[in-house]
Design goal:
alpha+beta; signal; four-stranded antiparallel beta sheet; Cobalt-zinc-cadmium efflux system outer membrane protein; Outer membrane efflux proteins (OEP); MdtP/NodT-like; coiled coil; OMP_efflux
């Protein structure tokens, strides 16, 4: 072994030793709780909700008044060379919003806040779906790895028996070659199962923030999602509806912003020459000659049309996804029921009888291999059916999330 490789292996050993190990398998509820604590998508959605709350708070604030000071008639020529002719004016001006701008801003901010609240619930529902699926995939990977280990053990024993029978002259040399080929295939399948297990373990570990190198899960059936009325809105529909409401509020705001505001001012002017004072009052109104905000109004209306169309599309997508998940779940339940019933028991018994019969010389190697492969295939199909059922349950739960 090279020196550099040894250093790397030693460093890897120290890194693994420094990681916390969890002796107990992780339950789904624990995985969901830990995932919520470390999820970047939830942190992002929570931050966006805080921002929406801040904008809603700011939307109702009135414009600030402005204080101004002016000094006139000094540092000129003739009698204006000094400050004797100076006129000093101190005034306060206050803009007054017209057209319902403040109310329209508050409506937009409230709609955006509702949107952010629903988006946070959607982020949580998406996280639940992803962790649930990853949890089920890790469970399936553990089952496949255990099955691959069992098949490998049987292949090792079969190769030993075949070698003994060939040595005593009961079976031809071809028998040993076939058993050795079966063992090589079992070794390759076990390596593949181990690789899939590592990948599934890493995926769930990333989702829940685990550093356990031997992360494992509890074998448990996922609860069915609660039934909803046929006309119940999904989170996706509610989010699209909130976006439509926000778009409608933006149209009102754009229309309000097309109305000119009034700025009123008042103050006091001091004449230094004779010590007199006078009040001043002013009003200014912009003339909407060049800018009446028509472009923004048109854009806001188009945004509202797009939001309405998106809501209609989301309703269709929700129906398809919910119905598809229900069909997938029904099919998966049928498959699990069929694969875990009498057929599986018969395959197990056939493999057991074939192994005993082969050792006693009643069956050929091919018959034994066929029986074992039939059992392995039945076990793999059952694992995949259980995984499909878990995926369908997660999909239906996501479609019915509120």
């Amino acid at each position: 072994m090279s020196k550099s490789l040894g250093v790397l292996l030693f460093a890897g050993t120290l890194a693994m030793a420094g990681q916390p190990a969890f002796a107990e398998p992780v339950s789904l509820s624990d995985a969901l709780a830990r995932g919520r604590d470390v999820s970047p998508r939830l942190a992002k959605a929570k931050a966006e909700l805080k921002a929406a709350v801040g904008r809603a708070m700011q939307a109702g604030v009135r414009p600030n008044p402005t204080i101004s000071a002016e000094v006139e008639n000094f540092s000129g020529t003739g009698p204006y060379r000094t400050f004797r002719q100076t006129e000093t004016t101190i005034a306060v001006s206050q803009p007054f919003e017209l057209g319902g701008k403040r109310r329209a801003r508050k409506e937009v901010a409230a709609a955006e806040r509702s949107f952010a609240e629903i988006a946070l619930r959607m982020a949580d529902a998406d996280l639940i779906h992803d962790i649930t699926v990853s949890y089920a995939e890790l469970r399936a990977a553990e089952d496949r790895e255990a099955l691959a280990d069992s098949v490998h053990e049987r292949a090792v024993e079969l190769a030993r028996i075949a070698e003994t029978l060939v040595d005593v002259g009961r079976d031809p040399p071809l028998t040993k070659l076939r058993a050795d080929a079966l063992l090589a295939e079992a070794k390759a399948e076990r390596l593949r199962a181990q690789s899939e297990l590592l990948s599934a373990r890493q995926e769930l570990a990333l989702l829940i923030g685990s550093e356990d190198p031997e992360l494992s899960v509890i074998a448990q059936d996922l609860p069915p999602p609660p039934a909803l009325p046929a006309d119940a809105q999904s989170l996706d529909e509610r989010l699209a509806a909130a976006e439509r409401d926000a778009a409608s509020a933006r149209v009102h705001l754009a229309q309000a912003e097309g109305v000119p505001d009034i700025t009123a001012s008042g103050g006091v002017r001091n004449f230094r020459e004779n010590k007199d004072t006078a009040f001043i009052v002013g009003v200014s109104i912009p003339l909407p000659v060049f800018n009446s905000n028509r472009g923004n109004i048109s854009a806001a209306r188009a945004g509202g049309e797009a939001a309405e169309a998106q809501l209609a599309q989301t309703r269709l997508d929700t129906r398809f996804s919910r119905r598809g998940a229900e069909l997938m779940l029904a099919a998966a339940n049928e498959r699990v029921s069929a694969l875990s019933g009498a057929g599986h028991s018969q395959a197990s018994e056939a493999a057991r009888v074939a192994e005993i019969g082969y050792q006693q010389g009643k069956f050929t190697l091919i018959e034994l291999i066929d029986a074992q492969e039939a059992l392995t295939s039945a076990n793999l199909k059952l694992i995949e059916a259980q995984l499909d059922r878990a995926r369908a349950l997660a999909a239906l739960g996501r479609a019915n999330a509120q």
